[in-house]
């Protein structure tokens, strides 16, 4: 159980699906992990508990960071909390694993909330206002053999996430899937999603996926003709 201050996103099925994928990675004392959009800190706690030597949690919400700090202290875990927008405060650092469960719920418009609990899920009309930025920014803070893990709904375009990450030179695969019933937020927007063709009429479930992206092997240039091997 994690403590959670008011206004902080509660860990849910997507969180635990991603946490299990994170735990499957080889995390040791030398591992550097970055948790983008940490929320209540569930993923940071999982990484530190699994043995990662350096865990950094970033969020734009100060309440989320306070929640993460509390949850780390209660478990006597070392987690560095950093206030900022996605990778902005850590651009000069490199991480072996970057993990993120960002806001990805399609909203009525592209005006992102600046406060309140809606900031934890609203992500613009297509649900990609944070996902697109992560796809562009996260590869820049990955170590040479770094791994990026992202959770998202199929409602916000899994194919686009994969294509954008591949454009950044990463090899991408889906490593986990789960079909889950709509919660309160999605149930309230079901008619909107039906009107946009995002779901079938009467559908009240969504599929959550976890994408794992790693740097592709760089092809070694062949030696020039006549060069001794």
Structure overview:
The chain is of the alpha/beta class and 229 residues long. The protein is 27% helix and 24% strand. The chain is built from seven helices and seven strands; from the N terminus they run H-E-H-E-H-E-E-H-E-H-E-H-H-E. Strands 3-2-1-4-5-7-6 form a seven-stranded mixed sheet.
Question: How do the helices and strands line up, and which of them pair or pack?
Answer:
Elements: H1 13-23, E1 32-36, H2 42-49, E2 54-59, H3 62-74, E3 80-83, E4 95-100, H4 131-137, E5 142-153, H5 158-167, E6 170-181, H6 184-188, H7 190-196, E7 205-215
Helix pairs in contact: 1-2
Measure the end-to-end span: 59 Å
How many individual β-strands?
7
Sketch the topology as an H/E string, one letter per element: HEHEHEEHEHEHHE
Mean pLDDT: 92
Radius of gyration: 19 Å
Q: What portion of residues belong to β-strands?
A: 15-25%
- Strand order, sheet with most strands: 3-2-1-4-5-7-6
Note the overall shape: globular
The largest sheet, given as strand count, sense and whether it forms a barrel, is: 7 strands, mixed
Describe, in short, the structure shown.
With 229 residues, this protein is of the alpha/beta class. The chain has helices spanning 13-23, 42-49, 62-74, 131-137, 158-167, 184-188, 190-196; strands at residues 32-36, 54-59, 80-83, 95-100, 142-153, 170-181, 205-215.
What attributes characterize this protein structure?
seven-stranded mixed β-sheet, disordered C terminus, globular, 7 strands, 229 residues, 27% helix, alpha/beta
């Amino acid at each position: 159980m994690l403590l959670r201050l008011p206004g902080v996103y509660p860990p849910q099925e997507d969180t635990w699906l991603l946490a299990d994928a994170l735990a499957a990675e080889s995390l040791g004392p030398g591992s550097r992990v970055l948790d983008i959009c940490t929320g209540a800190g569930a993923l940071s706690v999982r990484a530190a508990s699994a043995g990662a030597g350096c865990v950094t949690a970033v969020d734009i919400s100060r309440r989320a960071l306070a929640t993460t700090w509390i949850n780390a202290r209660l478990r006597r875990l070392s987690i560095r909390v950093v206030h900022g927008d996605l990778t902005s405060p850590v651009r000069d650092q490199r991480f072996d694993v970057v993990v993120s469960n960002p806001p990805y719920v399609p909203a009525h418009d592209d005006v992102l909330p600046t406060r309140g609990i809606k900031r934890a899920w609203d992500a613009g009309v297509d649900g990609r206002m944070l996902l697109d930025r992560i796809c562009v920014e996260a590869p820049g803070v990955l170590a040479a053999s770094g791994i990026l893990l992202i959770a998202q709904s199929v409602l916000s375009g899994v194919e686009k996430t994969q294509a954008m990450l591949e454009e950044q030179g990463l090899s991408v695969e889906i490593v986990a899937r789960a079909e889950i019933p709509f919660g309160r937020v999605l149930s309230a927007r079901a008619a909107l999603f039906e009107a946009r063709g995002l779901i079938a009429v009467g559908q009240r479930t969504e599929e959550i996926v976890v994408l794992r992206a790693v740097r592709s092997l760089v092809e070694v240039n062949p030696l020039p003709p006549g060069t001794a091997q």
